[in-house]
Amino acid sequence: MAIILLALVVFLMALIYVYVAMAISDWLGVPFVPTYSWDVKTLLSGLTVNKHDVFYDIGAGDGSVVRYAAKHFGIESYGVEKNRMLVWYARLASWVTRQQNVHMIAADAFSVSYRKATIIYLYLFPEFIAKLIIKLKKECKPGTLVISHKFIIKPWSKYLEKFDDIKPRRVVFNQAINW
Ligand SMILES: C[S@@+](CC[C@H](N)C(=O)[O-])C[C@H]1O[C@@H](n2cnc3c(N)ncnc32)[C@H](O)[C@@H]1O
């Protein structure tokens, strides 16, 4: 009985934590909406990745995409997230899963350098992306792959490599850009 009660309390505390973290992200301007795990698999499948690749999720939320990339590809994977509550959660999760190649950076997306990135994942609003790509274009190496979930990067449409539209479950746009 005591164990059930304890599990219930832990579950409720985790739920409250997630809701508070979501409210903070809302307040920061881009809500925390995680990419569903089945979509992560689809979006990151079929990529040619080598051990020198470096993955970044900009606006990484709870770090689940970062942990997937780190585990699936075995490469150094970074998450940049402004909401510290989500960063603490993500750090705890990667510590529990013993993923030493997961690095969560608690910072504003615009204050971080993306020079060493070779694969960048975005699940952000188009207005946010429009500002961010100016920075990415300056900093990233030619050939850097940018995957945008749900939102098309209109100024880069000529670089579009692949577009996924998965139905009827939900619509997923996979925009991979090489320049
Ligand atoms: C739609 S969620 C995506 C989460 C994660 N990438 C995923 O796909 O599961 C967007 C995230 O961006 C974060 N965010 C908003 N503004 C940011 C900023 N200026 N710098 C860094 N992260 C930011 C929010 O806190 C939120 O967690």
How is this structure best described in words?
With 179 residues, this protein is of the alpha/beta class. The chain has a single domain (2-177), classed as Rossmann fold (3-Layer(aba) Sandwich), CATH 3.40.50.150. Helix content is 40%, strand content 16%. The chain contains five helices and six strands. The chain has helices at 2-28, 37-44, 64-73, 84-96, 126-139; strands at residues 54-58, 76-81, 102-106, 119-122, 145-149, 174-177. It has a six-stranded mixed beta sheet with strand order 3-2-1-4-5-6, with helices on one face. Strand 4, helix 5 (126-139) and strand 5 (145-149) form a beta-alpha-beta unit. Helix 2 (37-44) packs across helix 3 (64-73). It is globular, with a radius of gyration of 17 Å. The N and C termini lie far apart (60 Å). The mean pLDDT is 89.
